Every structure is written in C-alpha cells, then in structure tokens.
C-alpha cells in the first residue's frame, strides 16, 4: 500500500481513515519546509505511538509528573541519569521504581499520544508518506487506540486551537493573576468536569490541570514556559489561558512583556538608524560651514536646490528656510569620501 502526497491536496485525516479502514501496520511520516518531522505509528489500523523530532517524550512525561507532585525535580534528574546508564525504557523505569502502576502509565501515554497527534493534524502544509512495516509496541505501557474513538474530538480541539491562537498569537507573552480573585477560585473535585474552567454561581471551578496552569501564571512565566513545565500540550494550556482571560482571572500582558523577538530587533534596528543619522549630521554640521561646501556635498530636491541658488548668507539661516518648505525633506548624499545615505526607493 503506497500513500505519498501533499497535505493540501489530500488531508491527513483522509490518510488516517484509509490506514484505519484497511487495518494497516506501519509508519506515517510527515514533514514540511520548516523542518518539522513527525511519525505516526499504526498497528493493524490502530494508533500506538506518535513521535515529534523536536520533543523529548521522556522529559515531557517527567515534567508532567513533577507538575503533578508525583516526583520531585531531583527524582526526575535521578531517573533520567539512570536511564542513560542502563538501557531501560522510561515507562518501565517508572513501573520498576513504583512511581506509577501499569494502568496509570497507560493513561498518561494515551493522553500524550493524542496531544501529539493533534499537533501534527493541525499542520496545514507539508508532505506525508506511509511506509508498511511490522510495528512492535510494549503492551504494558501502550494500549492501541482506535482512530474513530478520538478523531472527532481531535478535529474539534484543532478548530478550537485556531480560535485560541487568534486571541493569543504569541507564546512568549507573560500574564499575571488579577488582584482580588483568589476567593472566587476553587479547585474542583469533580473528575468528570468537561471544561477545565467553569463558572458556578459566583465561583470559578478549575479542574486539577487547569489549577496547575493557573498557579504557573505568575508574571514571570511565558505561555511557552507553562507548556514546557506542565507538558499538558499547546491546546490545553491555550484553552485554559483563554478561559482565564474571559473570566477575568488573569491580566492581559503588560506592554513591556508583549515585546516579541521580532519587535525587539525592529526596535534595535530603528535605534541603529537614529544613531547613524546623528553621526551623519554631526559630520555634516562640522564640515559644511558655507553655501559652497553645502552645494558640493548635498543634492536636494528641486525646490531646495532653487533656494540654494538664491542664498549666500549663513548656514543657519539657510537651514531655517529649508525647514519651512512644506513636505519637502532633503535627501542627503555626502561626497564619496564620506558615509553615504541613499534615498530609499
């Protein structure tokens, strides 16, 4: 069975349905021009694993356990060091250390697999290729997932994620808790609460994961930091942030914290141009002391050129006259021995 093509021409959802319906085993490889690389593993048409090249699954699961206070940061470091020393799967290590039982480990793995699948399915451009292969998986850690059981929820989550992205378009933004809301926020005991954040009368109920996200909103963590520290995934964290904003529990970012890298470098570039302009004007004023030197060093637009011909008085009076010309700004061209500032096309 050969499946190869472009996501725009044939969606990943359609590809998944073909693999599922034909009960195929193999690897679906996805890539795009930005270097994103993902692999979806199937066993007889069911989902058994998803890997994203840029993500360390063991570290993400470890961070999740730290966030849940199941282990400490020191214990996580110890586990990762032990895994490097001995050829052990991280899941097996967690069971051997009696940190998790098999049932809980399977639940965590399933949640992580679905989150990663949603991340890949949200791609709008790229290429895919399905490779038939015999897939082996550890049944103590992974329970094969029927695609028809999760695909509708995945599509709904992807649509919502696009909405959250419009509201929160920069993962480097920093939020802080709004003052005076502490008494209204309650950690919900309802394990079946459908939304992570709901309003009940005058109270706001947060489920366990939403409460974790809320506690990490502290005026220092970016949204990216919260995603990494909780390992709850882009979709869930953005949904919680979105709901916390709508319920007025957290403040929009301060102007200072809204500065992304691109804005920072644009600002730096503008400052550089200002400095360059100051340097040019310094040498201009220093060297150009009479109208003859000005005429040899500068070419102005037509109106200013006419003013040059009319005037033989001091440079200062000449400049005063120039500043009164409506909308006509001089374009400065220093002589070739000095810095040249060319007119932008």
Describe this entry's structure for a reader.
With 345 residues, the chain is α+β, with helices and mostly antiparallel strands. The chain is built from 13 helices and ten strands. The chain has helices at residues 12-21, 57-67, 73-85, 90-96, 102-121, 147-167, 208-216, 223-230, 234-246, 261-287, 291-297, 302-310, 315-323, and strands at residues 3-6, 26-31, 37-43, 46-52, 127-132, 176-177, 185-187, 197-200, 203-206, 250-251. The strands form three sheets. A five-stranded antiparallel β-sheet has the order 1-5-2-3-4, covered by helices on one side. A hairpin with a 2-residue loop joins β8 and β9. α8 (223-230) crosses α9. Mean pLDDT is 77; it is low at 255-262, 288-305, 311-316 and 325-345.
Structure in a nutshell:
The protein has 345 residues and is an alpha+beta fold. The protein has 13 helices and ten strands.
Number of strands: 10
Give the overall average pLDDT.
Answer: 77
Q: Write the H/E string, N to C.
A: EHEEEHHHHEHEEEEHHHEHHHH
Spatially, the strands of the biggest sheet line up as 1-5-2-3-4
